[in-house]
Amino acid sequence: LMGVIALGTYWLARNSPIAGPGQTQARATHDPDAIMRRFSVRSFAPNGRLKSELRGTEARHYPDTDTVEVDQPRMRMIGEHGEVTLATARSALSNGDGSEVELIGDAVVTREPVTTPTGRAVPRMEFRGQFLHVYVNTERVTSNKPVELLRGDDRLSGDNLVFDNATQVLEMNGRVKGLLAPRPTPQP
Prior knowledge:
By secondary structure, this protein is mainly beta. It has 1 helix and 16 strands.
């Protein structure tokens, strides 16, 4: 059976037309070349630690733009020290290597509370908006649409957002509003 398949493949390769110098290939169309339904994709670090998981109801890969569209995405990313970040939306658009994800429609990115290696407690942080652009490798979240940020008991909202998790710098512009909860004073 394998020999017959090999001969059939050889015959097909020899008899396929070859594009000549005057011929051009058909222009790529924006049609999916792969579709997954009710799927889960996991990525692991070289040491075997789970880095991220993406679930969705349907995903479509488009070869002309090397992008993936996901319906009802549910992402879970786990940092080196065990910090968990969750992301959900109505749909998502990712580049080919998954380093950039655009969350579209009822987008929420949540980092669960953690304790740093130095012992400092970092409260839960949640971003909400109709559009959030997540840069996975550089741990940044941006948006050019109105966004709300919840950090512990604090609430901030603005017309756009740039947050860099590595430097812990938040920049909001436009109509920015905030409610900062009082911090308890340390007891002697």
